[in-house]
Design brief:
This protein is an alpha/beta fold and 142 residues long. It has a single domain, classed as Mannitol-specific EII, Chain A, CATH 3.40.930.10. The protein is 46% helix and 23% strand. It contains six helices and five strands, in the order αβααββββααα. The protein has a five-stranded mixed sheet with strand order 1-4-5-3-2. A hairpin with a 1-residue loop joins strand 2 and strand 3. Helix 5 packs antiparallel against helix 6. The longest helix has 16 residues.
């Protein structure tokens, strides 16, 4: 499912202004694709402000997401690799931001399951964290 959804949704950048900017950058392709409304991005940011950096799911990796009713229109995923990383609350430095949107629970669970498979694969994670360009990321996830 991951490789089917990625399409043009892989980005690399040197840095983000802050963690909020990183979430906006990661979610931009989902907004442009009509997969989410702008309110969904606001909700992802608000969730971290209220609940802390729970989206930092492992060292170097954050998975911002929100609820369907916050503006998820389609199931989609976007990956942003930041060369310099960005500090999330509680000094969690993140280099890989994976923005998710799902329009139903089954799709949400399938996306999470696919990503867990990637996270459990040490070679794939090393490949993602050391990727220098979009093609490197696509190659790792192929």
């Amino acid at each position: 499912m991951i490789t089917d959804l990625l399409g043009k949704h892989v980005q690399t950048a040197e840095r983000a202004e802050d963690w909020k900017d990183a979430i906006r950058m990661a979610a931009a392709p989902l907004l442009e694709n009509g997969s989410i409304r702008a309110s969904y991005i606001d909700a992802m940011i608000h969730n971290v402000e209220v609940n802390g950096p729970y989206i930092v799911i492992m060292p170097d990796v954050a998975m911002p997401h929100s609820r369907v009713e916050d503006g998820a229109l389609k199931t989609d995923i976007s990956i942003l690799k930041l060369k310099d990383g960005v500090a999330f609350p509680q000094d969690n430095i993140v280099h890989l931001i994976i923005a998710l949107s799902a329009n139903d629970n089954d799709a949400h669970m399938q996306l999470l399951s696919d990503m867990v498979d990637v996270f459990m694969d040490e070679d794939k994670m090393n490949g993602l964290l050391h990727a220098e360009c979009v093609e490197d990321i696509r190659r790792v996830l192929a």
